[in-house]
Amino acid sequence: MLAPFSLSSRLAGLALLISPLAWSADWQALPSRAPESADNPSTPAKIELGKMLFFDPRLSSTGTLSCFSCHNVMEGGDDHRPTSIGVHDQLGGRNSPTVWNSAFLSVQFWDGRAPTLEAQAKDPIVNPIEMGMSGIGLAVDRIKCLPGYPQLFEGAFGKKAGISDETIAMAIAVYERTLITPDSSYDLFVKGDKTALTEQQQQRGMQAFSDVGARLVIPARTSAAQRAQLAPASS
Length: 235
Ligand code: HEC
Description:
single chain; 235 residues; mainly alpha; Cytochrome Bc1 Complex, Chain D, domain 2; globular; disordered N terminus; disordered C terminus; binds heme C
């Protein structure tokens, strides 16, 4: 039988590295919905628009890179590279994290510099080594000229809001909140279905995860010293 996951006794020596909050919680299942922003509620029209924008390479200066290029949601939500390649084949300094379940993170980016998905979404568009637009206004102007988008923005945000950097980011964020993986074998196991993980392989993996303290990754986003270790700043 599986031993109980008594994290506190085995990891007492690491207590200084972690926030007490991380250890008060036991294993938890992912909720079936991502938390929403009160200022940006999800609607089917907004989700559909956000999905189009996420897949649209016309948001990049060369017309060749979309969010999907570095966050392949058909696979793991990343690009399978040590560090990402942006416009004009420029090699970036950081690894692309998955967008799957990013809606549950308290902050975005390896160094946590964006507080929300909405704040995060504008950054790659104007990052010179990612989508390379020389200004967010240029991306807005381009989207305004593309057939179909004005009607979709009106359907998602009403007549007044129009197409802006804010509404582009809001739509993308709402789409990203659909990229979640509830009810995986792990979730079902934690919710009480003891047959969801085989003891031989997965429960032992879960035990090993707990033993080495892999949950340190999440508190690391909140500590400046650990942030520096986790990913050196990109150029
Ligand atoms: C050229 C590759 C590339 C493109 C294009 C790109 N990203 Fe990223 N993305 C990255 C990298 C690299 C990071 C990590 C950068 C960092 O932490 O400084 C990242 C981080 C993120 C994160 C934070 C996830 C986390 O775990 O902290 C989200 C969300 C995200 N990107 C969404 C998007 C969206 C939305 C777009 C399109 C508007 C986009 N990305 C375009 C490479 C890319």
